[in-house]
Every structure is written in C-alpha cells, then in structure tokens.
Design brief:
About 6% of the residues have low confidence. α4 crosses α5. By secondary structure, the protein is of the alpha+beta class. It contains 5 helices and 15 strands. The longest helix is centred in the middle third of the chain and has 17 residues. The chain is 24% helix and 31% strand.
Length: 268
C-alpha cells in the first residue's frame, strides 16, 4: 500500500510503500526509480495497533522503543482493506485499538485548547443527573420563551452556576462560569441557538445528550456518554500536492482545520 509515514521522534513525513508478508512488515522509501527498503519488523513482536479516527491512519508500535510508526493513508476504504489483511498475520498478543482514547484526548487538548476533556465530560454527566432528579423549577425542563417558541430539555445558565456553587467545586461564580465555558467548548453542553459564550443569566443551555435529532443531508452522529463520539468526523487532508497535511476535525457544532500532529498518541 502506498501511503506516507512518520516515525516516532521525527517531525518529517515521508512517502512510503508498506508491504506485509506472513511474518514481516516492510516500510520502503519511494520517489525513486524503484522502492528502496527503509526498515523491516517482525509481526510477532508488534505489540500495539491503533486505528485512527475514521480510518485515516493507523499506528504500529513494536517492543523496541524506537520502533513506532504512524502510517498516514487519508483514504478510509484503502486503509480498511489493508488492515483486514494485516490483522490476519498478527500475533494473538497484539493489542488492537479501534480508536485510541489518548488520540482523542490529544485532539481535544490541542484543537479545543483544553486538557481536561474527560474530567469535563464526567462532571457534565454528574450535573445533568442532579438537574434531572430535582423537582424544583430550576432543573432541566421544557421552556417557552417569547413568540411562544418552546425549547426542550434545557436549563438556565445561572441555574447551572448555582448548582456548581452548591456542590462546593468553586470559590466564586466567575470560576464556575469559566468551567461552564470549557464544557461549552468541548460540546458537553450547548447554547440552544449555538452561541459560543456561556453566560451567568437566564440564557438557555442544553446538555449534549438532550439535543434533539437533526435532519441533514450529511451523516450526523448524535452525542452519547462516550467521549469518543464528541468528534463526529476526523479527516486527514493535504494542501499543496500533499506537502502540508492537515486534519479536518468536526464536532457537533464546530469545524476546525488544524496542522496534523503526527505523534498522537505517544508510545506507551
């Protein structure tokens, strides 16, 4: 399979031909008259195979600490077909991960600018459960505003801040608002009209699990309790004749084009 690769510890990406036999995998340099062998590794010593989001790439990690490669395919069908062949030759001891959680965490940290994604998701689930259990008027419920429009399963921004203060997690409302803003950024919760700022007032918000179904000509992945599904699409793209790889990252309400970082995730 023709692709590109990045070896752990190197920033540069290179064109390559990846060849698999019953026992070995060969990474060959391309661009010359014929491919030239660059490295080869025994499949019996392969310990980790991490499949990237949307089958855009995969990582190979051997027992030796200096043998870890990220193979950039940028073609879902081609990547799936290659991995089907590769997995037939793998040792039972090889760990195969469909989507590495460390990859998702790194993307959330670098793209969204937050390094507490999983903590934010966990806290969001806790706050939502408390709001659902309350019988008072400040919890999650349908609310009708001006022009008789009804927003389902939503809450006031000030109510969530009140809850955070009662839980004793923060010393001031300003700190609680900053935490809510971070939950908004990583799609734990949304403004009902998809505004970007969290406000400590009567503005309406909704947790991602309570979002209504959307109809669209594009495939839409509804949020769930699994943090991996916060990223609905991860597509590896290239600018300027494949010289500058970028990642197209799509969440529930945002789209980012960011420089591809080839060391996601770091070797174990």
């Amino acid at each position: 399979m023709y692709a590109q690769y990045s070896k752990y510890g190197e920033k540069r990406i290179r064109d390559c031909l990846v060849v698999v036999s019953n026992y070995m995998i060969y990474i060959c340099k391309t661009g010359e008259e014929k491919p030239k062998l660059r490295s080869r590794h025994n499949l019996s010593q392969l310990r980790h195979l991490d499949i990237g989001l949307n089958y855009q790439h995969f990582r190979l990690e051997w027992e030796s600490s200096d043998a870890a490669y990220k193979i950039l395919v940028a073609d879902r069908e081609k990547c799936q077909n290659f991995l089907e062949t590769l997995t037939l030759a793998l040792s039972p001891d090889t760990s195969v991960s469909q989507v590495s959680t460390s990859t998702v965490s790194a993307i959330n940290e670098l793209v969204f600018g937050i390094d507490k994604t999983f903590e934010l998701v966990g806290k969001g689930k806790l706050y939502r459960s408390i709001m659902l259990e309350t019988e008072e008027t400040w919890g999650i419920r349908d609310r009708t505003l001006q022009m008789f429009r009804t927003y389902e399963k939503c809450f006031l921004g000030s109510d969530l801040v009140d809850l955070l203060m009662r839980e004793g997690d923060f010393n001031s409302r300003a700190e609680a608002v900053e935490w809510c803003q971070q939950m908004l950024v990583v799609d734990v919760l949304h403004h009902v009209r998809l505004e970007e700022q969290f406000l400590d007032d009567a503005t309406l918000y909704r947790f991602s699990q309570d979002e209504p179904e959307y109809s669209s000509t594009l495939e839409y992945s509804r949020p769930s309790d699994n943090p991996n599904t916060e990223l609905n699409l991860y597509q590896l793209c290239f600018y300027e004749k494949r010289e500058s790889p970028v990642s197209l990252v799509v969440s529930n309400v945002r789209l980012f084009v960011t420089k591809e970082y080839h060391q996601w995730p770091l070797p174990r």
